[in-house]
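User: Here's a chain of 347 residues. Predict its fold as tokens.
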Amino acid sequence: MIRCVWGLFIACLVLPAAAQTGGSEPKDAAGWFQRASDQMNLRVFGVASFHMKVTFHAFPGIQLLDEKKSEKERGSEILAGDGVYEETWASTTEWRREVTLGPYHAIEVQFGRVRKMQADSDYEPSRVLMLLDALLDPIPHNILNPDLGDTRFSWKIDRHTDEKVPYVRISNNRFGGAAVSFGYVFLPNGMLVMRNERGLATGWQDQIVFAGKIVPRRLTVQAMGNNLLTAQVTVEAAGKVDPAMFDLPGTPADAGMTLRPLYKYDTSRWSFESQSASFIESNLSSSSVIREVVDRHGVVRDAEIVYADGFGNLDGMLNYFRKMTWHPAEFDGSPCEIAWDWFHVHP
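Assistant: Prediction complete.
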């Protein structure tokens, strides 16, 4: 993994004493992943109710768009700017999430067995997905439970010291080199401080302890050293919660209509019709990773570069990806949105 991927977390390794939780060291990678997930998961039965507020800034990233072309020719732009996310959690069956980013505004609630959602669009912007992924699933479900995915990871555990602070790095290079590898960085006490997924680096910083759980007060998502998302997090006890805030007018939401990011292993029936592996191999002259979001109608949105060791032909490839035709992914029989990474390792 390139230096800039690891560099974002170094300044955050010296943490407040209140966050220095520990326990015996896990015996394997699975143990490290499970302990970190347990430490950071506020949304489980028995945890104290809370109110969380996140102020964030979304950056456009690298899209290599030709400004001389029309908006239609250039494809979808990534929604950027200042945003706010608020969550009130009373229990596993009573919670409310609300997010605003520019013109996009959505509310999702759970009350008993009924979940509802209101949104200005049936498309959740890419940066909203990144934020909620970092908040809700710091360790992805398929890493915690390998049976969910179609790939078995073989993890390598290394111990390092940077600026006199020891840390543990767990990584996997199964897909061919640093450019498209997966990696996680932990403090020796088990605290997760960084995750890298094929060049998309998420950092959890300035942690505190709330109700026995670790909560980062800052989040950072980067690609090639460039900020894609920065966020400030506050959390407090919810106090007395009015049940009316968990109700929305209208009918229950379809399964695929949700703010919670969904992943390949959650979904079914997704497929693409116009992608050609031979075309990609013959037109990319560098190792690279392109991230795109496919909406509930099978339309490619927010395609961007998250890793490249050279930019030859990437503008043309981004335009190619934007024109791809997909059968929408489905979650419990309902069309849903997923993020997808295309990676190419140049010999």
